[in-house]
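Below is one record:
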Amino acid sequence: MKNIERMNYQNILNNIETEISQIKDTGNVATYIPELGLVNPNKFGAHLITTDNYNCSFGDSNEAFSIQSISKVLALTLAFSLEDDNLWRRVGVEPSGTSFNSLIQLEYERGIPRNPFINAGALVICDILITRLKNPKPIILEFARKLSGNSGIDYCKRVSESERQIGYKNAALIYLMKSFGNIENETETVLDFYCTLCSIEMTCKDLAQSFLFLASYGINPLNNERVMSVSKSKRINAIMQLCGFYDEAGEFSFKVGLPGKSGVGGGIVAIQPGKYSIAVWSPKLNGKGNSVKGMRTLELLTTKTQSSIF
């Protein structure tokens, strides 16, 4: 990649920040998790890193926030590495087409979640990790630290406890799956791990770095370590493309055209295979639970750089 191309990434991000600042700020912070409702709604930042380690950013890109459902990609990566294709006996790879916490769909499909990124699917992934790993909490945290290059990444106890206090729907999902035989461990143990997982805090820079292996066909290009096989990284990218934005995945593909994952903390991470990883954070969400400014930022990025995969 030539230096002039690298300079363009920063210039483009600067132009996007300016353009979005002139648009009416819409959306709402995810107050249904009380601790998330305390976040400053005006925060806005992004960080892009290329596969040959060129970094550019703007705004609040170095401030840590709750990554929420984005953590489900990290959990899936570990579970897929442990289970191989046996994983897909317990969770599907199809878009949900319904709310991320739908009970109706789960009952209709007899306790097999549509994909690993809706809440039911992530709970199954957590159950698998509890079965396969002696102590999954520190293991997945160390995994996140290693991918990001930041040894200070941690869980947020306030957020995890806040999520547990309002997690009635998640409890209903896990008990329903337990009734169909798709949960092996104690329901409270799985719920605790799930809420802890979602409470991981990262910066945009941390997130962009953590997902860079998915832009590099399973290899972390900064240390040349293989995180997973080419085949498995391809499949995770495909699931992000199809299922990474709750029931707005089609809209994201239509407007942005990159594999990615969002979280109700206002974060979005997306990758351009062979090129870059980018994370955006803005806490105000649309009606589907995705960051309004984050979606718009990525739409502008792929339009200006012509980097949609389509």
About this structure: The two ends are 21 Å apart (CA to CA).
